[in-house]
UniProtKB/TrEMBL annotation:
Function description: Involved in the isomerization of 5-deoxy-glucuronate (5DG) to 5-dehydro-2-deoxy-D-gluconate (DKG or 2-deoxy-5-keto-D-gluconate).
NCBIfam families tied to this protein: myo_inos_iolB
Organism: Niallia taxi
GO molecular function, one term: 5-deoxy-D-glucuronate isomerase activity
Annotated metabolic or biological route of this protein: Polyol metabolism; myo-inositol degradation into acetyl-CoA; acetyl-CoA from myo-inositol: step 4/7
GO biological process terms on file: inositol catabolic process
Record keywords, A-Z: Isomerase
UniProt similarity note: Belongs to the isomerase IolB family.
Protein name (database record): 5-deoxy-glucuronate isomerase
UniProt catalytic activity: 5-deoxy-D-glucuronate = 5-dehydro-2-deoxy-D-gluconate
EC number: 5.3.1.30
HAMAP family: IolB
Length: 272
């Protein structure tokens, strides 16, 4: 099994909380990005104290209440399925803060997106309607983008968070692009994680992660609920006919700018 592919974990609930994924710098090749996925039964609570990391709490599905001890955001979350194609609510919490998440629906799925942070910022509700929505690509390269924390959003110090729906028989993160060089203004260094869901659930897709010199070159069969880790390199996603892909991206690096570089061998497709 590739060290870049984390399979969906069928864990037992503890006090109504299941930790499905927990990607950290201690158990992965990442230094700037952390990712956790939890599932909560109704009325279950999850509490965490942040150290030198900031966190974006994404209500992936279901409804939750989030509190940092002062601010309380009640009953947030907009959808029962990511394939409803509508944005959802999120909450930004800064380093040094403690937060509590309570499930207010029967089941709630929550993504916790982390990156290093030194400057404390206010806790902020990022409403679904604040997400900028884009339709990108053409031909068999079409996807719908919900920008939760783009680099233009002032709430965070390091984090970038985005959701992408890729239509059936289409490619995404394509033509292959990378952002692994701290060489602004041409390219920024950003690590990345992809949390994947697939509709129908029994489907699969392929994601390749590779560098120009092929010192890293892995192609992974990704199933519903898996996470792919991208420490560097190009990282295209291919979705088979009959299935639709959703992924949640977390990015972070030394500078909070998304500036990518296309693989020159494949950039020609943009000019069709």
């Amino acid at each position: 099994m590739s060290e870049l592919l984390r399979k969906f974990q069928h864990t037992e609930a503890i006090d109504g909380v299941k930790v499905i994924h927990d990607v950290t710098k201690e158990n992965s090749p990442l230094n700037y990005v952390g990712f956790k996925l939890i599932e909560l039964s109704q009325k279950a609570q999850y509490k965490e104290m942040l150290g030198s990391e900031e966190c974006c709490i994404v209500a992936v599905t279901g409804k939750i209440t989030v509190s940092d001890g002062t601010a309380v955001f009640e009953n947030i979350g907009t959808r029962d399925s990511v394939f409803e194609r509508i944005p959802t609510d999120s909450v930004y919490v800064s380093n040094g803060a403690e937060f509590t998440i309570s499930a207010t629906s029967t089941n709630a799925k929550v993504a916790l997106c982390y990156s290093p942070s030194e400057e404390a910022k206010p806790t902020k509700l990022i409403k679904a309607e604040e997400n900028s929505v884009e339709q990108r690509g053409k031909f068999n390269n079409q996807r719908l983008v919900h920008n939760i924390l783009p680099d233009s959003h002032p709430a965070a110090n390091s984090l970038l968070v985005v959701e992408v729906i890729t239509e059936t028989a289409n490619w995404s993160s394509y033509p292959p692009h990378k952002h692994d060089q701290d060489n602004l203004p041409e390219e920024s260094f950003l690590e990345e994680t992809y949390y994947h869901e697939i509709n129908p659930k029994q489907g699969f897709l392929f994601q390749r992660v590779y560098t120009d010199d092929r010192s890293l070159d892995e192609t992974m069969a990704v199933e519903n609920g898996d996470v792919v880790i991208v420490p560097k390199g190009y990282h295209p996603v291919g979705v088979p006919d009959g299935y639709t892909s959703y992924y949640l991206n977390v990015m972070a690096g030394p500078t909070r700018i998304w500036k990518f570089h296309n693989d020159k061998d494949h950039e020609w497709i943009l000019n069709r």
